[in-house]
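Batch manifest, entry 17 of 40.
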Amino acid sequence: MSSTAAHVESARTSSANATPARRDLLTRLKPSLPAWLAVIGLFAFWEASVHLFGIREFILPAPSAIWSATIAIWPTVLEHTFATLTTVLLGFGASVAISLPLAMLIAASPAISAAIYPLLVVTQSIPKVALAPILIVALGANEVPRIIVTFLVAFFPLVVGTVAGLLATPPELIELGRACRAGKLQELVRIRLPFAVPFVFGGLKVAAALSVVGAVVAEFVGADAGLGYLIQTSMAFFRTPLAFSAVVILAIMGILLFQTVSILERILFPWSSGAEHAATPAA
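Output type: structure tokens
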């Protein structure tokens, strides 16, 4: 009897401990539930509409047809996905490595800002589709032109966001630093840069998503591998489901990169993400 009672008490204790853990899991999943329901509803509506109206596959394939086309040649799709992901990561890494020091330089000197900002605007005014063939002729049909195009698409929002954060530091903090005899470099690194962290990660999120766009633009112009190349070749032979598959993979890639930056922000600077969420309702 005592053994039975002990087992019953142990089961009750385990159930009591599991209940808070289950509630905590549900609390974490609850904010993302509307997004998942919206995505599932969209694909269900898409599938039903295609079958209901009899839309031909080469015009608008159903999600089931897209899935079947992807599974049929999944090694090839995976190879093209890795090719695009490599371009995206290299271009995004180059934008981070160049944009952050450039933004600090712009924020540190009004003269440098006046000289560089017009050039940055010029780089964004040039259509990347028009620039890509010139880069291919100049640098060859290799990975370098695609990385440069990806970099040019991604770096501008990162520079602008970082500069805005560095210049948005409260004047009280600047005066306090100068009262403590902080030099220009100390003021930039110890006062302005920590305050600009939410702005920097905001720019990183935008740059991560735009890197995918830049890589596909470059692949449309000149590439022998990648999801952009897969879209072009698929549409040339009216393999529309395969082209849609590449588009869906690109969307997932952009979302994953965006969420990766968000997770890094929460891990490295939890106070930054908390301050950002707290400021949103107040605005």
